[in-house]
Amino acid sequence: MNIAFLSDIFYKLLSGVPLTLNLTIVSLIGGGILALLLNSMRATLVGNAVASAYVFLFRGTPLLIQIFVIYYGLSAIPFIRHSFLWTFLREPYWCGLLALILNDAAYTSEILRGAFRAVPPGSYEAAKVVGMTPWSTFRRISSPIALRQAMPAYSSEVVALLKGTALVSTITLMEVTGIASAAVRETWRAIEIFLCAAVIYLTLSLLVTWLFAYAEGRLSPWLFREAR
Amino acid sequence: MIEKLSLVGFGAGGWGSLLLQAGLMTLAVSMVAFLVGLFVGTLVAWARISGSRPVRAFASAYVSVFRGVPDILVIYLFFFGGRQFLTAIGTAIGIQGPFEVSGFVAGALAVGLISSASQSEVLRGAYQAVPKGTIEAGSVVGMTRLTLFRRVIVPQALVTAIPGLGNQWQGVVKDSAVVSVTGLVEIMRQVAVASGSTREYLLFAGAGAVLYLIITTLSDQITRAAERSVRHGEKRKVA
C-alpha cells in the first residue's frame, strides 16, 4: 500500500463529490416540496388515500428497485419514448434524481406528518381564540413547533439520502461510488479504494449530523441549556 | 396482455417459481443479516451502556462509521475486498488462488453489521427506558445479575424494543436488495435477469416490488402482534 496511490485515488474520488452533493441537495429540495404537497393532499378523503398509497409503495420497496423501474422500466413505455419527457428520462442523471426525489418525498412526508401531529392542540385553540387566520396559524404557530420536532428524524433522512445517492452508480452515474467501482475494475485494489470512498462519505455524513445538531441547539436552546 | 402476464406465472416459460425462490433467498439473507445485527448490536449496546470510557468511545465510533457509509460501499468492500484479502493471505502462505467470497456470506455480513449500528441504538434506548427503580428493587430482593436481566430488564425493554427492531428488520429486507450487486440471486437480481432476457422491465420490476411489499406488510403485522403479546401484562391505558 503506497501513499502515492492512495492520494491519487483520493483526488480521483473527490472529483465525484460535486455530483454526490448535487444529487443530495436537489433531491432534498424536490423531495421536500413533494412531501409538502403530499401532506396538503391529506386534507381530502381521496387525497389522503392517494398519499397513503404513495407512502406505502415507496417506503415498502427498496430504493434500488425504484431506480431500476425508472431507468429501465419507463424507457420501455412507447408513450414516454415519444413524449418530451424522453429528453430527460434517457439521461441516467434525471432518472436517478427522479428516483431519489420520489423516495425522499415518501420518508419526509411521514416525518412532517408525525411532527405536525405532535403540535399540542391547545396551541391551535389559543391561535384561534386570538383570531389568527389558518395561514398565520400555520406560519407562526404550528410550523415552528413542528419543524423543531422534526429536526432529529430529518437529520437521519438527510444522511440516508446522502447514502442513497451511492445507488445511482448502478445506472452508470459517476459520483463517488461510481468512480470508486470503476477504479476497482481497473486496478483490483478494492480494499484501499472502497475505504477511501468510505472516508469521504463518513466525513460528509458527520458534517450533516453536526450541522443539524448545531441548528437544533440554536432553534430550541431551552432543551440544551442543562447540558451546557 | 395475458401472454405477458404468463411470464410471471408458473407455467412453461413463466418466471414465477424462480421469482418465489428469489423471494426465499431475500428472506434467508435478510434473516441471517438481522441475526448478525442483533448479536453485534447487543454487544455494542452493552459496551455503550456499561463499558469503560475507551470501550464506550470505540462503540460510538463504530455506530457512527456504519451509519455514515453507504450500504453498497460496505457490501462492495466485503465482497471484493474480501477476495483481495483472501488472495493476499493465500499468496503469503503459498496457496495459489483464485479465491472467491460467496455473495451470500459477504452480503449478509455487510448488511448485518450496518444494521447492528442502528439495532444497538434501539436496544440502548429500550434499556434506558426501563425504570431504574425496578432494577434496584430486583437487586434488593437478592436477584443475581442474570435473573435481573432475564426477569426484570428484558420483559420491560422488549416493549420499547420490538417496534424499533421491527423497523430495523424492514430496513434489512430493503438493504438486502443491494446485495444483488454481488450476483446473489435474490429478488432484485432475479428481476434484473428476467427483465433483461424478456425485455419486460416494468412487468418484472412490478412483480419484484409486489414481493417486497408482501414481505414488508407481513412483517409489519407480525411486529404488531409481537408488540401486543409482550404488552400482555401491562395495564391497558384508557384512550
In summary, what is this structure?
The complex is a heterodimer of chains A (about 230) and B (about 240). Chain A has about 230 residues and is mostly helical.
Uncertain segments of chain A are none
Tell me which CATH architecture of chain B applies here: Orthogonal Bundle
Runs of chain B in which pLDDT lies below 50 for 5 or more consecutive residues are none
The arrangement of helices and strands of chain B along the chain is HHHHHHHHH
Strand content of chain B: under 5%
Average pLDDT of chain B, rounded to a whole number, is: 90
Q: Name the overall outline of chain B.
A: flat
> In whole angstroms, how far apart are the ends of chain B?
50 Å
CATH superfamily of chain B: MetI-like
Quaternary structure state of the chains depicted: heterodimer
- The domain tally of chain B reads 1
Number of helices of chain B: 9
Indicate the CATH topology of chain A: MetI-like fold
Based on the coordinates given, report the CATH architecture of chain A: Orthogonal Bundle
